[in-house]
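RESIDUES AND SHAPES:
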Amino acid sequence: MSSLSLRAATPAEIHALYAGLPEFAALHGERDIQARLAGRVSHLLIALCDGVPAGFKIGYALDDTVFYSWLGGVLPPFRRQGIAQFLLQAQQAWALNQGYHRIEVKTRNSFPAMLMMLIKNGYQLIELEKAESVADNRLRLAKVLTEPQVCPG
């Protein structure tokens, strides 16, 4: 069984992992990431599988009570090992421990595994942004952070 751990990350480290996710087609450069986070409270995490960077989660505060989970992903060779769930739980725990009451996230119909993981973890659909293609519809989900969160690792 693989050993999973977490550590804080820099925008450059996040971008290096992000560039390895084929479904995102490198939509955001490192400067985009830095610009999005500028002046905001943010949280950048990398998951390590046996010491090797395998995935990431990045988010930032929308206000004093709402945290936005912006980007996340797991590199293809490391998928289906629970790493996305590990990152999601760590982000939720951090957000609750920082005093946030709600976490929001957007995904698309074209990412059914992400959508199913979010629903399984208590996120609820709060908005639908229609696109030309149904697969590209953006789904905004939210979860109220009221239950105790145990940070993995």
Observations:
- The radius of gyration is 15 Å.
- Residues 4-144 form a domain with the Aminopeptidase fold (CATH 3.40.630.30).
